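Deviations from the work plan: none for this task. Representative record:
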Amino acid sequence: MEAYINGLSVISPQNTFNNSDFLSEPVVHTTNYLSCIEPSYKEYLNPTLARRMARIIKMGIAASNICMKDANIEMPDAIITGTALGCLEDTEKFLWAIIENEEQFLTPTSFIQSTHNTVSAQIALQLKCMNYNFTYVHKGFSFESALLDSLMTIAEGEAKNVLTGAHDEMTEKYYKVCDRIAYWKKEEVSTFDLINSKTKGSIAGEGAAFFMLGAEKNEHTYAKIRGLKTIYKPENTADVQKHIHQLLAEKGLTADDIDVVIYGINGDSQYDHVYYELKDSLFNNATATYFKHLCGEYQTASSFAMWIASMMLKKQTIPSAILIGDDKRKPIKNVLIYNTFLTIDHSVFLLSAC
Amino acid sequence: MSKKIYITGLGIISAIGNNVEETLDFLTKKKSGVSSLDNIVSRYQHQLPVGEVKASNDELKKLAGVEHLPDNTRTTYLGIIAAKEAVKNAGISNMKEYRTGLISATSVGGMGITENLWFDYLNPEKTGEWLRYIETHECGDSTESIAESVGATDYVSTISTACSSSANSIMFGARLIKHGIVDRVVVGGTDSLSRFTINGFMTLMILDNEHCKPFDAERKGLNLGEGAGFIVLESEEAAKGKTILAELSGYGNSNDAYHQTASSPDGAGAYLAMEKAFKVSGLKPENISYINAHGTGTAINDLSEGTAITRMFGKNVPFISSTKAYTGHTLGACGGIEAVFSVLAINHNTVFPNLNYKNQMPEVEFTPTTELLSNQKIDHVLSNSFGFGGNTSALIFSRHN
């Protein structure tokens, strides 16, 4: 199963949403709570509608809109998204109201918008798109499941153009809640210090990313997705390596064919060893890069990495902001993304130049 | 790649029983499981009619056989109970023999615990062992516990498309087999009642304060329910030599794209989903012996679905019933629960009745089946599931010859 990436957009804590800049001037964040740099929504949404919408819904609709324009597609044949936490802000609002008002005087708006499928539903509603519509909500596999479904849908011939996305938002409350179970670092860490951090925890992030996957290559094409694998609780790094070898072998490749690896390094001293073990063994000869210092850690952060991989393959450049060590290999033909969320959900993506 | 998708195991827990056998007993005796809300501390406790599983969380934990593990959510326990029964029913003893996945579905995941502890989570002065429940909030968390309880972890994922969630989980699982990603997959969904859901539906003013009456002209709304339903899907290769309960022959998914919560009056999305399911199965409407409708009992759903069915089947609507009056509307679990009912209908040559029905809806051509019909040849069952966000899905279950 393969597909072309024919359009994209990501709203992230970096200036990324209109694809005009490829991380040449990264925004340095000095807190552990990274928020998205959002576009002006007027261009993408009716202001009356936008007023009633939570931030994540607006981010999702804007990102999908930019992506469709980028691909020059007005009506996708399927809309498939992944989100681990859904619409947190509205969920929290309704939850607070129930508890605070002892189940009285409630209004439906935040409940209606709290369901996990709100963003893909709202995109369908705006487009009047009655086609296949799915929302995956599995932690660090949310985006990966959406992507696999998209590849299957294209392989089945059911769709030529699939709008595939991921979105997760961080809220002040949820940041505090996750802080109580040591998700975040106790000390503030600046963007470019994260990789050298020796403490537990990471930094919080968020984002909304959309891709137009196509059955055919065209003048908008960024890259080709050639393979995807999810691994649930691998036994050890050798087990991970076995899965990577398998994925590469299916495509007639070996680890030496990989020019660039994008690692999900997040500065957490408990988990980052997984990435370094791969970097120093299997991918010793590849250019090593990382991305979570720019977007923060969240369950669907791999979607930000896929934006980077796509841009990298099209532009044939690697921004210095993501390099670990030297930029060793040109041209860039094959890029591998390796990511894990809390070392439970692991995923591998293989993308190639077109 | 497997062309056929075989169903080899069923597992269920709902207001009408903790397993398949008890469920069948309720279904055939026309006994509804809808009663008053007891297990949840709420303004509506002991008043609101719901399809509640009459067991405490501790009792469910025991029933799930996970006493040795830390406490978990009600959603997780319900899921484990149904998934374990399905795997046992499929006669799977060696999980390593084939690549086996588990796809679950849920609308609110661990909300039943989050809503009790939310203010404590946010209060730094309060601390305790209970902080670990924070991680049970995410929808995927219950899935991972369920997958581990049966050892099916070669592909794990979760779907949340409101009330069509577990129908979509079945559909995704079938496609994973067809694409050769797994050989077997346990699919379905789980949801427990919560104050969040009850109050949410309250604000929408679509709850009936009496027993729901699907497809009745005087229907007033739905009853909420809880439970879990899982089925085991296997490829032709993996199912060789096994007892095959039925085949999943068709599936279709589309979006109504009409309104965030309300279905379109013409049921356009529902019609499209059924049409796609027919295309995948190669069957025609006249092949369907029984429709297990979504039939929630709300004015809008039953009109929308009824109109779509009338458009699809014309004057020749087969036996049709909604089983929501037995179980309540179990939201993210209903597609899984009703998949079990659909396979039981085929295996027992039976149509389960649409309880509480009295008055003909003037807008539709059909009258639901109100009595238990046995000794019927039920070869193909169409099962519909529709949700908020316009998500509409249809599945077709067929007799295995």
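The longest helix of chain B spans residues 74-89.
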